[in-house]
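Field reference: sequence -> structure
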Amino acid sequence: MPRIAVILPAAGQSSRFRDKEKKVFATLDGRAVWLRAAEAFVNRDDVVQTLVVVAPGDMETFKTRYGAHLGLLGVEVVAGGSERFESVANALARVRDDVELVAVHDAARPCVTASMIDDVFTAAAKTGAALLAVPVGDTVKRGDSSGKVEATVPRAGLWLAQTPQVFRRDWLVEAYARRGELGRDVTDDAQLIEAAGRAVYLVTGGSTNVKITTREDLALAEAVLKSRPAPKVARPIHPFDDDVKW
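Structure field:
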């Protein structure tokens, strides 16, 4: 696998979370949401750099609260901008020269699995650009400003984008350099790469790859984590175990 850097944007305002804490700092089954997202990547052999992007106003508190975790996990902290694309651009400027692929993963998606990451990393290594997504399963309605249905939209071929979104580093750097001409209404990094004329490939993610937006999402994410098998812990070998020959 190529060498990969992971960028975790965590500088948003969390306006819909409606809590004194921002959603990425909320506690999820004992650990902060952003920390659970980071832990999915930091011990992988193909990930050589992990960067979390924090709002400048949160920087001091973040380093004080999570300094020990940052040092232990080798996570770098980057000051964010006024919008998400500025935050990612700030982190992109700090990516190591030997990195070949850059993955952008929402710090508010703490339930991504190793197999999902494997699949999207493999696809990006082959194609240059890939993202996790899930096919739309529900009927889709388009409404007007009053809430009246204007049309039922055929759902065939429609997907809901998730993260990680993974790209060749040179493609992402080029697309960010051209962002002014590619359009300011771009909503995610994959759309920016598309606007630059690159093909982006869909990799099936899962409904359990929950993004925390509201307090209800936090409860859902906790249920997802609790439903998964506990990680196996190797039993220490004791010299008097009957099944061990000495």
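Note: The chain has one domain: 4-227.
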